[in-house]
């Protein structure tokens, strides 16, 4: 029944000066991700993007649109002329294929993009309803709380009729906001932070700290699998992963520092490595999954002390999120079940029973000096290995 999909752009419409650039990027993202569906044809205007199905299964296209950031919404629709009679005939066809109950209520909503059209939006709705009602049994009008809304989008290039608006991911087109380095653990939070960063147009790369033999190959595989899930939201379905051997650093901290400071010292070492690596690769920011107060290392006092090792921009998309909000997103993007696999990463081993919640910088520096970490940090930096996996 549906012969096309109407796509509405999202938050990027606010970016007036870069509008054309944003428009081009998101249109190309859609075309590239749909390139294997050979029957599709595309058309774009200043405010809409149209996909002509030409017999292609619309479900396959919708699955792709669910991974494209920068979309406000989209609708399965049918195109007809701007003639009222043709609009009414098409409306009857769509309603008959959409309704699920014998008796139901409906209303007609019209958006008149073609302002030269002789009827107003309200008049178009009234004229269409007048012609539709006699042709559908059991249907009544309810303009306040209808079971079904028949939407008419009347534009210069034709009229598009649909009954459902599917919400898109919003945000900015993938890759428009520069490059970031995601500090990826195997937990729930960091992949969600990566997804939210992609959604704001950041081209995400990832760094993962491994501590063999304390962490297993399965923990690394978990990180790889998490990236494969969030890579689906990128332009080319790929995210580069850089793995750091962190064992020697953790051992030095474990055997030399006050146990209360293990997490603080470990995080400072991670930030030193991530900052140095970001500078070397011209990344624009570091991204992590910290949420204020969620654990001992994420109190404001801890964040301040850890942040002292770098002046590189740190993006914390989850800073004000509650855990249940983070889990909800993780389930939506299909990372949650991967994150809860029972394989420990280096952030969860050697965690002290009573970690310091409000560390003092002077005391942290004293504990850090005991560990002689700088040579180990440089050694770990030189050990970085690149993995690049793409989603199926």
Structure description:
With 392 residues, the chain is of the alpha/beta class. 38% of the residues lie in helices and 21% in strands. The strands form two sheets. Strands 1, 2, 3, 4, 5, 6, 7, 8 and 9 form a nine-stranded mixed sheet that branches. Strands 14-13-10-11-12-15 form a six-stranded mixed sheet, with helices on both faces. The longest helix has 19 residues.
What labels describe this entry?
392 residues; alpha/beta; 9-stranded mixed β-sheet; 13 helices; 38% helix; 21% strand
Quick structural overview:
The chain has 392 residues and is an alpha/beta fold. It is built from 13 helices and 15 strands. The strands form 2 sheets. Strands 1, 2, 3, 4, 5, 6, 7, 8 and 9 form a 9-stranded mixed β-sheet that branches. A 6-stranded mixed β-sheet has the order 14-13-10-11-12-15, with helices on both faces.
List the helices and strands and how they pair.
Elements: E1 4-9, H1 19-33, E2 41-44, E3 48-52, H2 58-65, E4 71-80, H3 84-98, E5 104-112, H4 121-132, E6 139-141, E7 148-155, E8 158-162, E9 166-167, E10 179-183, H5 189-199, E11 203-210, H6 217-231, E12 238-245, H7 247-256, H8 262-280, E13 285-287, H9 300-307, E14 314-315, H10 323-332, H11 336-339, H12 361-371, H13 374-382, E15 385-390
Helix pairs in contact: 3-4, 5-6, 7-8, 7-12, 8-9, 8-13
Helix content: 25-40%
Cα-to-Cα separation, first versus last residue? 30 Å
How would you sum up the major sheet? 9 strands, mixed
Structural class, from helix and strand content? alpha/beta
Mean pLDDT: 91
